[in-house]
Design brief:
The chain has 299 residues and is mainly alpha-helical. It is 54% helix and 5% strand. It has three domains: 143 residues, Orthogonal Bundle (Recoverin, domain 1), CATH 1.10.238.10; 66 residues, EF-hand (Recoverin, domain 1); 53 residues, Recoverin, domain 1, CATH 1.10.238. It is elongated, with a radius of gyration of 24 Å. GO terms for molecular function: myosin heavy chain binding.
Length: 299
């Protein structure tokens, strides 16, 4: 549980923190979010202010990007995933959503920031390990050397450009073009070994960015990938207003009202099933709402 849990070299990351609060504590996350926002195609209407809010609802994605844009988004974030690996991961998420019921086809083709960040963490963790071992650079050089039958250490500009933008850990074509254009000699050949080391230089912030992304995802919960996070923030605001003393507890009836204020139809019996073990039986203060939100976001 992340509530009041301190991580080394980081401020306290609370599970009951809103997106904006988490981003202030984790400064690399807004940078990744800005890249994600470049691909947003439309924005759903947001709920009205005040206490007229709903509990976080699965499959109500709010802001999202097309699944077909996820690869480019991740590459601008600094990753170089292979097309096959990324496609496999995306198809898994699409199948998972479609299996949840009718009417999910359109939603299944959209990716929230939290889903993109989840993919980012999975792929970045692998890349950080490979970079540390020098695997990526060596794999690229091995392919290029196999095309350099004479062992000159040089390859034609056009061939090198094609290889670097199509092989496994492919690079962005614009980036490759800019570097190759400056590196080619008058005959159109490029010394590829130094160039590859330059292109795949380790990002000094890569590990820090990965750690912050992991902390953010732990704080918002596993179900965030399928939720409109603005509604989660609104729910947190409503809970905070209902508990101005910051006791950490709320009466079951009041919680039920907040859950149902936007047309939801939770019953008292359903709520009782959800809150088992969350009630303060000793002091009779009600339900531990941090634990309740954690349960909703992770189960």
């Amino acid at each position: 549980m992340l509530q009041n849990f301190a991580f080394e070299n980081h401020p306290t990351i609370g599970f009951f923190s809103k997106q904006s609060e988490l981003m202030r504590m984790l400064p690399e996350i807004p940078k990744l979010r800005n890249i994600f926002d470049l691909f947003v195609v439309n924005e759903c209407d947001q709920a009205a202010g005040g206490e007229d809010v709903a509990a976080p609802t699965c499959l109500d994605l709010g802001i999202g990007i097309r699944m077909t844009d996820v690869a480019d988004c991740l590459r601008i974030m600094g990753l170089n995933p292979s097309d096959d690996e990324l496609q496999q991961r995306l198809e898994e998420h699409v199948r998972r959503r479609e299996s949840l019921g009718m009417g999910m086809k359109k939603i299944a083709q959209r990716a929230t920031f939290e889903l993109v960040l989840t993919l980012y963490c999975q792929l970045a963790e692998q890349e950080v390990k490979e970079m540390a071992k020098g695997c990526i650079v060596e794999n690229v050089l091995r392919v290029l050397r196999s095309r350099d039958s004479a062992g000159t250490g040089m390859l034609p500009y056009s061939q090198l450009r094609h290889l670097l933008t199509t092989m496994g850990n492919r690079l962005d074509e614009t980036e490759v073009y800019g570097v190759l254009h400056r590196a080619a000699d008058i005959n159109g050949n490029v010394l590829y070994e130094h160039l590859v080391h330059q292109l795949f230089a380790t990002d000094p912030l890569a590990e820090e960015r990965l750690q912050q992304a992991q902390l953010y995802l732990q704080a918002v919960g596993r179900n965030a990938i399928d939720m409109d996070m603005d509604k989660r923030d609104e729910f947190i605001d409503a809970i905070r207003r209902a508990d101005p003393a910051r006791s950490g507890f709320i009466e079951p009836q009041r919680l039920l009202e907040l859950l149902n204020r936007n047309g939801e139809q939770f019953t008292g019996e359903e709520l009782q099933l959800l809150i088992q073990g969350m009630e303060d039986t000793r002091c009779k203060r009600g339900i531990n709402y941090c634990r309740f939100l954690e349960f909703i976001m992770n189960e």
